[in-house]
User: Fold this.
Amino acid sequence: MIDFGGWELPVWYTSILQEHKAVRSQAGMFDVSYMGRIRLAGREGGALLDKILTKPAQQLEVGSAQLCLMCLENGGILDDLLVYRMGADQYLVVWNINNTEQKFNWLLRWAGSNPDVIIEDRTRDTVMLAVQGPAVSQLENLKGVYHLPWFGHAQTKIGGISVFVARTGYTGEDGFEIISDAANALPLWLSFMEQGAKPCGLGARDSLRLEAGMLLYGQDVDTGTNPFEAGLGWLVDLDNGEFVGKSALLEISRQGVKRKLIGFQVEGREIARSGYRIFKSGSEIGRVTSGGYAPSLGVSIGLGYVPIELATIGTDIEIMIRNKPVVAQVVDRRFYKRGAK
Amino acid sequence: MNPKEYKYTPEHEWICPEPGGKGRIGITDYAQSQLGDIVYLDLPAPGTQVEQLGKIGEIESVKAVSDLFTPVSGKVLEINQTAIDEPQVVNQDPYGAGWLVRLELSKPSQLDALMNSDEYDELVAKLREES
Assistant:
């Protein structure tokens, strides 16, 4: 068990590799209750979201959701998050564990004293489970929501327990995320276990998301990175209304970025861990932000920022792994693609 | 249980003495359970001279990397190619098929100062209690 931002969580239950493989081939389950869950409501709750997010939330249909970013005025990423539209004036924001206080202050700052905006932190009184893997549709618990499209969500019941279910996840597989009152945590967990969902810890969560080329806030992106260098420009809508950070992002997009987040594959089996230095022809060109063993591919992979001119797929780079330069190649960041095993 | 005929270090390596002043070394079951899934081994080339408690290699698990130390001094005779090719064998069978390095001991008397299995069992029991 480790302390994960104030939450006591296991890195693995049985083995990171077994848990990873369960999600890729069957079904695995993560307790992700540490993710922040914030209810936004009131007549101007949607307008507040539009003001601070990089994609307009009010364009979402009720029952759908979207990924987007919350940026600072200078374009730095304060968080990447999911916004669910629950009703006409009802939204749910699910964000990362990092910078929680700063993000609440940010919401409150832009909300001002507007009486038509309601912000409610639901993190502590609800539980959130991620059930992921190709076999999720065969789980009795999720039969009723299998019609949901990706990013679709619904209010339903599992074994008599009221739950909110969304077809979302962070593993590169099909999957659902389930939110319910905290008191229902154990019965839900046990019921999914009985149906064959294997409990998975933080280790597998990290190896799954890395293989799928998904970024980890606080490691691959933070307030010091902008969406374009991180390859997250697709989450930024510069064509519609105004939002915080838009003018800075327009300028960055106009000038082009100087560095880019790349995926790389190490030639040997040494693991290039976060913080290791990246070299090209003897000069340091960047740092590894995430790195690990890719269990589905049997190779060592990672992410890191390098100058834009060295970010082309196929470029040879070197990672300094404990004072030994190890050759790696720039590759497509989506190392693992579902169905293309 | 940790094999009776092996000797152990506080760093969770074992050595299995063989006739003729030789011995195989590896990591203990406790060590593999703490490391989790092992994915890469960096072991010394045959012929290398190694010094007691010196670093002779690295063991990389999904979670972290840790150093491998030798319980005794000697010359590397062979390394376990199976473990290099399939490091998970170290998790599955740390005292058998998951051995790491075979040495020719230069000072066999060093074995006497290592822990026996009872002493090592005790150490592991204590560590498990603490965690």
About this structure: The two ends of chain A are 32 Å apart (CA to CA). DSSP finds six helices and 19 strands in chain A. Chain A has a mean pLDDT of 96. The first helix of chain A runs from residue 16 to 25.
